[in-house]
Amino acid sequence: MIDIYRVLPEEMDDLVIKLGQPRYRADQLLRALYQGSPKNISDLHQIPSSMKDALAKAGYTIGSETEIHRVVSEDGHTTKLLLKFDDKTLIETVLMQYGPAQDKTHPRSTVCVSTQVGCPMGCVFCATGQMGFEKNLKAEEIVAQVLHFARLLRERDEHVTNLVFMGMGEPLANYDETVRAIRILTHPRAFGLGQRSITISTVGVIPGIDKLADEDIQVKLAISLHAPNNELRKKLVPTAGPNSVEDLVMAAKRYFKKTGRRVTFEYALIDGINDSNKVALELAHLLKGNGAHVNLIPMNPTAGGFSRPARKRVLAFQQILRDGGVNCTVRVEKGSEISAACGQLRTDIMQNIAQ
Ligand code: SAH
Ligand code: SF4
Question: Are residues 71 and 183 in the same domain?
Fold first, then answer.
């Protein structure tokens, strides 16, 4: 069985020819998939039944996701969904909306997608890391998260404008399926989202960063650093292994040199752990002079027992970086009251809802 939502437009051209159909059927099929909401091959009403039969006979299906649970934040700006795939795996995916977008009529609507069920990286402060690793998502399962929100938004005449790979899992540890999903989601003949409106966040899989720089996709990259030295970083990211913070800074420089796109360093600020003035100075020293941008994420609560610093501490940390010549912003918090913020996604405790 092959889910038709994992097929790239170029592959669709070959497929229709192989099935003895004229080439224009590929575009018909893509329109039906990305502008409609088919649940089965038989729902593709625009396609002649001979072709639908041929697709089914060749083993093509539509694997549909089921929405098990939906939580909306009080201000209505954040929506978290629990989705179940055909193999019964569960993932969370989040929609974050921000005031009117550039065109003044629609809000900016960013989908935060998951790439794995759980995560093998085990960062000590992250809810996903705490649940262990279950499986890599397939490209069609990543695409399904975006399409699910796109259909929901379509009902109110809105659309997905941005995509961040900051949900459950490490995208560069599931490289091929992540890149396939991005190609589908950005292809003008498929979902057609602008490549520059996509950000991949990685804990620092260096071969993946270098490979991504060589792809013909224009995504933005964020590296989750969390510490200016290796001793502290290894405590927070136990799988940091041989990758030193200096190696990560070098990888970011190579990415910038190859792509012309600056890398953002994400830094989860944890009370009493990595938020002192001394650490801020060390971070400024590490990043100074390479045009880096730091995005501070005041720690969101998880079961790990860490907490966020007081607002005053966050601002003092930011000021030290700025004084040290490093561009630094503080992430606007979205969805923490519904456990939909960075690092709060986990599905192992949701099994009871799904049954
Ligand atoms: N695995 C990737 C992407 C998913 S995590 C990565 O680690 O980058 C997305 C972001 O949320 C990362 O920057 C991560 O460090 C951050 N994060 C994880 N747990 C968090 C928490 N409890 N509070 C704030 N940010 C957290
Ligand atoms: Fe995985 Fe990212 Fe969470 Fe670390 S922070 S455990 S890499 S999802």
Answer: yes
Indicate if 328 belongs to the active site.
Answer: no
**What is the C-alpha separation between 59 and 93, in angstroms, rounded?**
28
Measured in angstroms, how far is the CA atom of residue 158 from the centroid of ligand 2? 30
The rounded percent of the chain whose pLDDT value lies above 70 is: 96
Give the CA diameter of the chain: 70
Ligand 2 atom nearest the C-alpha of 268 is: 5
Domain around 37: 2-61
CA of 100 to the centre of ligand 2 (A): 31
Ligand nearest to the CA of 118: 2
Q: pLDDT for 251-299, tens place per residue?
A: 999 999 999 999 999 999 999 999 999 999 999 999 998 888 999 999 9
Q: Which helix (H) or strand (E) holds 164?
A: strand 162-165
Query: Are residues 314 and 169 part of one domain?
Result: yes
Are residues 305 and 245 part of one domain? yes
Q: Residues in the chain with pLDDT < 50?
A: none
Last residue within a domain, chosen from 40, 61, 82: 61
Catalytic residue among 92, 140, 141, 170: 92
The pLDDT value given to residue 345: 82
Question: What one-letter code names the amino acid at 38?
Answer: P
CA–centroid distance, residue 337 to ligand 1 (Å): 17
Task: Check: CB of residue 299 under 8 Å from CB of residue 269.
Answer: yes
Please identify, among 61, 81, 112, the residue that sits at the C-terminal boundary of a domain: 61
Q: For atom 21 of ligand 1, which residue has the closest CA?
A: 343
Instruction: Please tell me the total count of domains within the chain.
Output: 2
Structure confidence at residue 290 (pLDDT) = 80
Atom 6 of ligand 2: nearest residue by CA position: 129
Regarding whether 22 and 136 lie in a shared domain, the answer is no
CA angle 265, 196, 347 (to 5 degrees): 65
